[in-house]
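ok trying again, last paste got cut off:
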Amino acid sequence: MALSNPFLTELAAAFGIAEEFWDWKGRLTEVTDETVIAILAAMDVDASDPERARAALDAFRQRPWTRLLPPCVVMERDAPRRVQVHLPHGNWVRVAVRLEEGGFRDIPQVPDDEPPRWVDGVLTGQASFELPADLPLGYHRLQATTEAGQSETTLVVSPSFLGFPASMGEKRAWGYASQLYSVASEDSWGVGDLLDLADLATWSATQQFAGFVLVNPLHAAQPQPPLEASPYLPASRRYVNPLYIRPELVPEYAELDDRARGRIAQIKTKLKKELSGEQLICRDQVWTAKIEALRVIYDHGLRPARRMAFNDFLRREGRALTQFATWSALVTRFGGDWREWPSELKRPSSPTVALFAEQHVDQIIFFTWLQWVADNQLRAAQSAAKDAGMRVGIMNDLAVGVGGSSAEAWTYGNLFADRISVGAPPDHFNQTGQDWAQAPWRPDRLDDLSYAPFRSMVAGILRHSGGIRVDHIMGLFRLWWIPDGMTANQGAYVRYNHEAMVGILALEAHRAGALVVGEDLGVVEPWVRDYLRRRGILGTSIAWFERDGEGRPLQPEAWREYCLASVTTHDLPPTAGYLAGEHVKLQHELGLLTESLEAELAHAERERESFVGLLRQRGFLTADPATTEDVVQALHRYLVATPARVLCAALTDAVGDRRTQNQPGTDKEYPNWRIPLSGPDGKPLNLERLYRDERAFRLASIMNDFSSPMVVPRADTELVV
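nice, full thing came through this time. structure:
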């Protein structure tokens, strides 16, 4: 049934709340009154009864007329854009653009037939102005001058089409997708780190001829155990997780005296002994040891030139970094969830927080220093990738959101919707829906802030990378909001200003010369993919999901050109595991299936056989009988035959790994994000063994479309031909 009253219906439309959605089985599903009312309440709108809903609707309609200028204007270059200003009826107004690089452009007024209306006792009129199509790209200021004074707002001019970065040229690029924490070397501290990333990129470029390495989100986590295992549930997306720092790579490490270096060696040796025999990644133990070692290095101090560089970093990052570091220090004193702190500490602007910061200056500086060190090591990894010949280099992943207890939620306060969690409606792989325990940004508050938090986040991620993968890019269009106390299947979609968010993303990527890939899997409105393609942003195509109208595997020629094409993704088992139906067995063990195990296994077998049939039909698979590796290789030959300009191979597929990295819909039930890179035998495989893995060279031969297989070099210095 539809919503119970027309005012609630109009309010839902006004605030971008969808009354219905198409579920994964193609059924049109309606949203309940209770869900819509709860979501509106999270945006400070009382619609609990028809009268209150009507009053809220009237207030919403009046809101634009109470402002001289809108809070933010985003336009595409080469496309004129009209903007409305509101002022007392009969008053004069002039509009101009103050350009980012200096200078002004007067904006012409155009006819507007909207009649004046009474607003708070003032007869208010509307005037329209047309922003020209030839404004330069950038962040400008839109100025309106009246007899009463002047007002300004942010004007963003973004590229209409982003496309491929110049570094790619006209050639296809391929690369490995890796969970960095899972790829540790013999010398690392139990997790893959930024030096390991540099080395992985060098090997991928020089021995495998790959153009990029795609890594999991490197976003900052909590500063003390227990650490959140999921890289997709960070404390801050603006900053880097210092867990990925290699202590010995910090320049000051070389300046330490024997006693200090001996202390660090003791810490590392003790950690290695504790981790001996562990089959899972132990972040808490690693971070406890690593932060102790880093504190030893920090206490050594900085020579003058390094101090200058650190201070320059602090100036560039500004207040946002100081607030993040302050949050980190507060966490070590009061616990990981700021919502449980004393009330006087719940706002970063409070006098009590200022007093705490004064009393803990050294600790706060230490946390800013960690970010500086991580930033430097990430820059070094990207430099290593480019120096080794990668055309793109490191491609970073941007998580869709943060948790309610995060640093972002503390810093930005009411930017986040209260008592709401983000997730996904039911689908084939998660038939009860998903609750990601993330707090969503409020669309109206983002607009009021001119999207500054989003802009700084994207700019920060792109500073030392050649590309960005936007996880769940539909989140720039709509998110599945789940009110507190409701299950994941009782949520509703809430729309965002995608033109503004995609525009800012495209502008920042243009400035960075970066490739942008959007993960557009799952339930996606068809027009979204069309829009992203028009803006020159790549989608994501996974072999298992690419089907024609009859449900058959899609012929390779029918794939998109503008996509990152892969056989699998981190939310599925590696291909060897998927072929064996490991995902179905795991979901059964965890109670995530809504249909019988037998039925789901039969479905998985039909899916596998349909692909094997296509692979044999097209000549990608000739071995009979075929081994698992034969089928894995054939699936990647299938990828190579598509027109996709960017191809991706999972590092797990390169070494024959079978274990699922993440099972969506679970938390404690499965060791998500704690699985080390392993061989077919399930034993952890370090970076040094990867260098010599024959499977990886055989797969790289296919990804490069070589006529003959590559072989492992006899020595590290031998060229691979």
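cool. Residues 179 and 216 are 5 Å apart (CA to CA). The chain has a mean pLDDT of 94.
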